[in-house]
């Protein structure tokens, strides 16, 4: 079962500029910033006063998934991530309901969690990530 929105991810071409906007103008705080070499991306998580988080995604190489996304769509909304307590169960539920999964098995995520993506062709054109925090 899905619980809450974990974060909303935004693809950007300049991570420093995006971080400055989300801290200086929007009032957020950068709580985690690092490179994920296997995904060819640098991420920064911005937290706001409540529970809301934004994940800023910046490709480290043009041929990365986020690099290809930016080339095709430009900067903007990349995906919405929902938290779950049981990622295998949620993935099976999605598949039982005709949702095509990008990830057949969970993989490590950017926040020390396990993640899987549902393909936008079966989710009304929105890339959906599910995340199970490791506790």
Structure write-up:
With 135 residues, this protein is α+β, with helices and mostly antiparallel strands. It is built from three helices and eight strands. Strands 2-3-4-1-5-8-7-6 form an eight-stranded mixed β-sheet, with helices on both faces. The mean pLDDT is 95.
Work out the number of β strands.
8
Q: What's the tally of helices?
A: 3
Main β sheet profile: 8 strands, mixed
Q: Could you give the order of the helices and strands?
A: EHEEEHEHEEE
Return residue spans where pLDDT drops below 50 for at least 5 consecutive residues: none
Major sheet strand order: 2-3-4-1-5-8-7-6
Mean of pLDDT: 95
Summary tags:
135 residues; alpha+beta; 8-stranded mixed β-sheet; 3 helices; 8 strands
Brief rundown of the structure:
The chain has 135 residues and is α+β, with helices and mostly antiparallel strands. It contains 3 helices and 8 strands.
Topology:
Layout: E1 2-11, H1 15-25, E2 29-36, E3 41-47, E4 53-59, H2 65-73, E5 76-84, H3 87-96, E6 107-108, E7 113-118, E8 128-133
Parallel strand pairs: 1-4, 5-8
Antiparallel strand pairs: 1-5, 2-3, 3-4, 6-7, 7-8
């Amino acid at each position: 079962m899905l619980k809450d929105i974990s974060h909303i991810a935004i693809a950007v071409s300049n991570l420093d500029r995006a971080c400055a906007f989300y801290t200086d103008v929007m009032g957020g705080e950068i709580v985690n910033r690092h490179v994920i070499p296997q995904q060819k991306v640098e991420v920064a998580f911005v937290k706001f006063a409540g529970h809301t988080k934004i994940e800023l995604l910046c490709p480290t190489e043009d041929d990365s998934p986020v690099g290809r996304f930016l080339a095709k769509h430009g900067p903007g909304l990349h995906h919405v991530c929902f938290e779950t307590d049981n990622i295998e169960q949620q993935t099976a539920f999605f598949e039982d309901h005709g949702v095509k999964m990008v990830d057949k098995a969970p993989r490590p995520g950017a926040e020390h969690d396990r993640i899987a993506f549902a393909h936008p062709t079966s989710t009304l054109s929105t890339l959906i990530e599910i995340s199970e925090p490791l506790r």
